[in-house]
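no rush on this but wanted to send it before i forget. theres a chain ive been looking at and ive put its sequence and its fold in token form underneath. i want to understand how the tokens follow from the sequence so walk me through it. thanks a lot i owe you, the record is right below:
>
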Amino acid sequence: MHDRTSAALQEMTGKPSSRGAESGPAKPSVNNRRTSVLLREYVASLDRPSASLGSLRDALGDRGFGVLLFIFALPNLIPVNIPLLSAVLGAPLVLLAMQLTYGRHKPWFPNWLARQSVSRQNFEAIVRRALPYIERAEGLLRPRLTPLLSWTGERLIGVALLVLTVVLALPIPFGNWLPAFAICIIGLAMVEKDGLAVLVGVAVGAFSLVVAGTVVIGLLHAFFLLLAGLTGTG
């Protein structure tokens, strides 16, 4: 009974049970296969007409955070006008960033969200679009400045991602592309354990916050000018 309780608690918190806590947080074993290979194998193994978020998370294992961040942020880089796209995709991104900040090693989703699925055809289209970027990253990125991707480092990255994902979810005109780009860079950098690329992503993210802030200030200024003109107080 105690073992089952400990296992359930570990699943919810993403941290080792108290009996193994003395040795500090221990990450799950790293899968040596390329992420692109894992995605191809997952698509090939689908025996249902749909792909669920939970099954994708399980297939990715310890790479789940980086790849899921990339997949959810990527559609925001596509120049198409889909209403509320950033808000819809921003919600799971915020959830992932919060879990990184908390110190989880693998993504966790509530059952109702883990059961959410897309058709196999649509998921294959998403993977086809994502694979060229992932394979390019696999060729360019490599383990560098790995202390930035330690357990503590990933919590700090989670804080930066949380800010970016909140901004991404807001309906700021022209304010979504750069945060999404920064999240994609950081996600791929986490997968390949490239601390230098993480710093590049954080720098892009900081610049995106400046751009978003400038847009918001400009909109507020225009609003107050318009209000003053309508009320005759200008």
Notes: The first helix runs from residue 2 to 13. The longest strand covers residues 50-52. Residues 16-30 have pLDDT under 50 and may be disordered. DSSP finds ten helices and two strands in the chain.
